[in-house]
Write a structure and sequence with these properties.
Number of strands: 6
Shape: elongated
Helix content: 25-40%
Largest sheet: 2 strands, antiparallel
Low-confidence stretches: none
Strand order of the largest sheet: 1-2
Radius of gyration: 19 Å
Mean pLDDT: 89
Distance between the termini: 12 Å
Length: 121
């Protein structure tokens, strides 16, 4: 956000940051609502002169949703097998070859949408 809104006033940055949070909450995928509810803005100042805003989430899986994941192997940590449900059936497996997940760049889209609407793109 700081690179896109580089030469803005403090009030302009505050408004843009709030708009990005609102847009990201609209674009965020919803299963339980935890990711959407966790999206926030944090403002920092460098020596009281330069303002910096960070929009994001502290939910541990937020980067995986936004950026996607590569194919990977999942193994149990504390048990002998993994247990999950597929099509209503309970399945046990020692190893799962996860195909990865496609990125859903909701934070990037929110920034681009707000920048475009405010004339910064």
């Amino acid at each position: 956000m700081n690179r896109t809104f580089r030469a803005t006033s403090r009030s302009e940055g505050e408004i843009a940051a709030r708009q990005i949070v609102a847009r990201a909450k609209v674009l965020a995928p919803v299963d339980t609502g935890r990711l959407r509810a966790s999206i926030r803005v944090e403002r920092r100042s460098t020596f009281g002169l330069r303002q910096r805003w960070t929009v994001g989430s502290d939910v541990e899986y937020a980067p995986m949703v936004n950026d996607g994941t590569r194919p990977h192997i999942i193994r149990p940590r504390r048990a002998k097998a993994l247990k999950f449900t597929v099509g209503g059936r309970t399945v046990y497996a020692r190893v799962v070859h996860h195909p990865g997940t496609r990125a859903n760049p909701f934070l990037d889209k929110a920034l681009a949408d707000v920048a475009r609407s405010r004339g910064y793109s």
